[in-house]
Design goal:
It is built from 21 helices and 15 strands. With about 525 residues, the chain is α+β, with helices and mostly antiparallel strands. The strands form five sheets. Strands 4-3-6-1-7 form a five-stranded antiparallel sheet, covered by helices on one side. Strands 8-11-9-10 form a four-stranded antiparallel sheet. Strands 2-5 form a two-stranded antiparallel ribbon. Helix 7 runs parallel beside helix 21. The two termini are about 35 Å apart.
Length: about 525
């Protein structure tokens, strides 16, 4: 069997992937390793025999796919986080991650751990696989191919031992912060709501939309219902449907008058509603406000569902392939409106190979450029940093002329997951032998101690900054902690413990993109010069 697997790397990959996903189903107190289980499965298989290792191009291809798709998805959020109040939260997160990295770096410089092991320990302590990839990339540019496998095992061992602590310590912090929170069973319905306001005071819908961050779907006046528009001024006696977060919708209704018992948003009359899928490249990458919905179709967009999240159809919201847009329009215009958006599930399964390959190629080219450092040294962004930086820029742009850079949401997730499996299986199998000889050594205890100190530093500073400087609520701070760790398990646990998970998810979303980028580039820049 060993000879069969050694001679068939494709078979070996699928065996490791299958074992990893079996391991991922094992949960202790609701916590599982998730996709990181593939790494541990690869280590276990590689420890059986030195010949059971996947070729280098496997993990390199996986790395490029993973970081490029992460960058495309994170681009809009990354830019938004730098524009809004999230900048202060991201500054706290950056300081916490920086302090944690110096704890791990000190362990390497003081010879408590080798520098590569310390770098891997840091990436595991902050539970970030792309950061591990950037460390391996920096290491590979400084050692010969003959010695890479042996030395690369050191950061992988550090990552593997530190990862569980990188999850457990933030979970303990979340538990401590939320001990007095209302239980999840009392939570109101999350997401967006749609309610009808009975207008008692005249108001311009455009002013209310900007002020409260809501969308308006329909207006009924003297028995006639029409799609709402920004130039509409509602008057006493009108009914208007309002969509948005519950507090904002409630505030709009209080401003206009009172809530009506009628459900204007659910009516199927001359004005109807439906969800249409964005599959047309002419629509994807454009902002809602740029679309000629009212002028051309007498229509109004109220919500956008992206993945499992509902968003208000704000004019500044950039649409992506795969978005499902809820539109209100005259019934006879619905077929034409659907054709305009594309509304084709089949089309979403067809990735634009030209733009995807062009963007990845630009990233690889950028990664190969030597960047000068003070003192005469240089570094490369490499396979991890180059595609990531380019993908962030292209993801934020959305489109350039006829080129749509974004991927459909589901396609992005699929490629991202497949890339992560390729990468984790590849580096895991190539490190199994060294891991087996280290796990029983005193070195493992030093890694665990360093990991505990590193994670505790990051979490402690983030909590201190969030409570004292930012004055965040406990729920929002827990979301920030989950985003800083880029850890869905922490997010899921925190969301289950509070009455309203929106605060948690808002904190998570505000720092996640920045934390991801900071860890990927920071791990390479901080540790690379010391390899």
């Amino acid at each position: 069997m060993i000879d069969l697997l050694a001679d068939n790397p494709v078979l070996l990959f699928f065996v490791v992937a299958a074992l990893g996903y079996l391991l991922a189903r094992v949960r202790v107190a609701g916590f599982g390793l998730g996709i990181a289980s593939v790494l541990f499965a690869g280590i276990a298989v590689g420890a059986v025999d030195p010949s059971l290792k996947l070729p280098e191009p496997v993990w390199v291809l996986g790395l490029v796919l993973f970081v490029y798709t992460v960058g495309l998805a994170s681009g809009p959020g990354f830019v938004a986080a730098l524009r809004r109040q999230g900048l202060r939260a991201n500054a706290v997160v950056l300081a916490a991650l920086g302090a944690a990295s110096f704890v791990a770096l000190a362990a390497g410089l003081l010879d408590v751990l080798s520098t590569p092991t310390a770098a891997g320990t840091y990436t595991g302590s902050v539970t970030n696989t792309p950061a591990l990839a950037s460390v391996l990339e920096a290491l590979g540019s400084r050692v010969s191919p003959e010695t890479f496998d042996r030395i690369a095992a050191e950061p992988i061992i550090g990552y593997s031992l530190a990862y569980p602590l990188g999850v457990v310590i933030p979970l303990v912090a979340v538990w401590a912060l939320l001990r007095g929170a209302a239980p999840a069973e009392t939570a109101p319905a999350g997401g967006l709501v749609s309610r009808t306001a009975a207008v008692g005071r005249s108001a311009a819908l455009a002013d209310l939309r900007v002020r409260f961050g809501v969308a308006f779907g329909r207006v009924r006046r003297q028995g006639t219902t029409i799609p709402a528009s920004d130039d509409e001024v509602v008057r006493p006696g009108d009914l208007v449907s309002v969509a948005g977060p519950p507090p904002a919708v409630g505030a709009v209704i209080a401003t206009l008058g009172e809530e009506s018992s009628e459900h204007l948003e659910l009516e199927h009359g001359t004005v109807d509603f439906r969800r249409v899928v964005v599959s047309s490249p002419d629509v994807a990458g454009r902002r809602v406000g740029e679309l000629p919905l009212h002028a051309r179709f007498n229509a109004q967009a109220t919500r956008v569902r992206r993945g499992d999240i509902d968003l208000v159809a704000d004019p500044e919201l950039q649409l992506e392939l795969g978005d499902r847009v809820r539109v209100v329009a005259p019934r006879e215009r619905m077929p034409e409106l659907a054709r305009y958006f594309g509304d084709s599930i089949r089309a979403l399964g067809e990735i634009d190979v030209l733009t995807f390959s062009l963007g990845a190629a630009l990233g690889l080219l950028l990664g190969s450029i030597d960047v000068p450092l003070p003192g005469g040294g240089t570094f490369e962004l490499g396979f991890a940093g180059g595609p990531l930086v380019v993908a962030l820029a292209l993801g934020a742009l959305g489109r350039t002329g006829p080129f749509v850079w974004q991927l459909p949401y589901t396609a992005n997730l699929t490629l991202r997951q497949f890339g992560a499996v390729l990468f984790l299986a590849g580096v895991g199998t190539r490190s199994g032998e060294a891991f087996g000889s280290t796990i029983a050594d005193v070195q493992a205890l030093l890694v665990l101690a360093t990991a505990a100190a590193t994670t505790a530093t990051a979490v402690g500073l983030a909590v201190l900054g969030g409570l004292r400087l930012l004055r965040l609520s406990p729920a929002t701070l827990c979301g920030v902690l989950a985003g800083m760790q880029t850890q869905p398990a922490v997010l899921a646990y925190a969301s289950e413990q509070v009455a309203d998970e929106r605060e948690v998810t808002a904190g998570y979303a505000s720092v996640y993109p920045f934390a991801m980028i900071a860890k990927i580039l920071g791990a390479q820049l901080l540790f690379g010069p010391f390899f």
